[in-house]
Write a structure and sequence with these properties.
Blueprint (H helix, E strand, L loop, with lengths): L5 H30 L2 E4 L2 E5 L4 E5 L7 E3 L17 E3 L1 E2 L3 E4 L4 E5 L5 E5 L2 E2 L1 E3 L19 E3 L19
Parallel strand pairs: 1-7
Antiparallel strand pairs: 2-3, 4-12, 5-11, 6-9, 8-9, 9-10
């Protein structure tokens, strides 16, 4: 009986080792890429004269809102609500940044929505131009409020009071 050549019996072993090494390299590369997040500024701050406070806005200056009852990953604004209130979302792997600390939460539809202080952020469809705050105080199952950054410091009181005190 004839013996198979030595290199034929070793080929399956070498092929298996090569495939295992290749899979390991691909796995490490994928993990390294997944761990690497891209930062992107998605929020700005603006002093809103109508409200008399600093609010968060989109990069184009549209006011951002949060719904009082949406906390801890609980979404109320779904379905038809989304035709009026537009979630501020980022692509997977993007870390949202701005003048305040931001986070993300996964929406029921799988998109990543930007959060501030744990509350998802939305723009309002009736706000037509930068600085509009038409969504402020709307009551639904909760109340919509313009998301605020740190309140600017109040001006110092005058050191002398007129009027003879």
């Amino acid at each position: 009986m004839q013996q198979p050549p030595a290199n034929r019996t070793r080929f399956p072993i070498y092929a298996a080792l090569l495939l295992a090494s290749f899979a390991t390299v691909l796995g490490l590369g994928a993990n390294a890429m997944a761990a690497q997040k891209t930062s992107m500024q998605v929020v700005k701050q603006a002093e809103n004269e109508t409200l008399g406070k600093t609010v968060l806005t989109t990069k184009s200056g549209h006011t951002l809102y949060s719904l009082s009852v949406e906390t801890n990953g609980r979404f109320i604004c779904t379905g038809s609500c989304l035709s009026v209130w537009h979630p501020l979302v980022v692509a997977p792997g993007v870390k949202p940044t701005g003048p305040v600390k931001l986070g993300t939460v996964k929406r029921p539809d799988g998109r990543l929505q930007v959060t501030f202080k744990g509350k998802p952020l939305y723009s309002f469809g009736a706000d037509k131009k930068a600085g509009d705050v038409n969504g402020e105080g709307i009551k639904d199952v909760g109340t919509w409020h313009a998301a605020g950054g740190p309140t600017p410091a109040a001006p110092a009181p005058p050191t002398e009071y007129p009027g003879g005190y």
